[in-house]
Amino acid sequence: MTRVLAVSAGLSSPSSTRLLTDRLADAVRARLGAGAEVDVVELRPLAHALADHLLTGFPNAELEAVLDQVREADALVMVTPVFSASFSGLFKTFVDVLEPGLLIGKPVLIGATAGTSRHSLVLDHALRPLFAYLRAVVVPTGVFAATEDFGDHGLEQRIERAAGELADLLGGRRSLHVVRDEFADPTPFADRLRGLST
User: Fold this and answer.
1) Residue 198's pLDDT band (boundaries 50, 70, 90)?
2) Contact (Cβ atoms closer than 8 angstroms) between residue 134 and residue 167
3) How far apart are CA 133 and CA 121, in angstroms?
4) What confidence tier does 181 reach under pLDDT thresholds 50, 70, 90?
5) Which of 187, 176, 160, 168 lies closest to 24 in space, CA to CA?
6) What predicted TM-score, i.e. pTM, was given to this entire model?
7) Distances (CA, A) of 18 to 2, 24, 42, 84, 176
8) Is the peptide bond prior to 188 cis by the omega test (within 30 degrees of 0)?
9) Contact at 8 Å (CB) between 93 and 159?
10) Contact 38, 4 (CB under 8 A)
11) DSSP 3-state assignment of 82?
12) Which residues of 83-100 are buried (b: 16+ CB within 10 A; e: fewer)?
């Protein structure tokens, strides 16, 4: 079973960010077929829990369940509204509470929404560098949607292309998602001692 978690950082209700997240999740679900489970999580109800986690270092049960979903997911769809020409604080707070190394090698499809297309570069100047720093594998096509894009055929094409690229990455994910156990093949103690004497 392939698990994909789609995360929406929209702050309003209804939310165009949630709408884009749902459309991306549906496209990924269609690409992966019956053998896939695609869940959608909204961060808005977790805002207080995220702030508490930053202050105390401990997640509450609801946030811990979402963090478990991230941990168990084979891939992520991460969508944020644009705030001050970058990702929202809620989105970044969620990324900040993820345990170090959690996203290494994990395929991530990035998306963003804004009121105007002038913010479309947020994908490449904010989101892609963030996930590159976290050593995730970001799909080549990010999906940006301004208000006027909803209902436009071009948005649907970008969603389909990005979902296809994520599905392709998941098809070859064994070669991308390498988890190395540093204790699986330890150096024998005698070899370590020999190394000290030379």
Assistant:
1) low
2) no
3) 18
4) low
5) 160
6) 0.85
7) 22, 10, 8, 19, 29
8) no
9) no
10) yes
11) strand
12) beebbbbbbbbbbebeee
pLDDT tens-digit readout, 48-64: 999 999 999 999 999 99
pLDDT of amino acid 190: 80
pLDDT at residue 172 in the model? 61
Instruction: Say how far residue 186 (Cα) sits from the centre of its chain.
Output: 33
- What tokens appear for 26 in the block? 């549906």
Neighbours of 28 (CB within 10 A): 24
Q: DSSP for 119-147?
A: GTTHIIIIIHHHHHHTT-EE-S--EEEEG
At 186, the amino acid letter reads P
Which ranges in the chain belong to alpha helices (H)? 16-32, 47-56, 61-72, 89-97, 122, 128-133, 153-171, 173-176, 189-197
- The total of other beta-carbon atoms located within 10 Å of residue 55's CB is 8
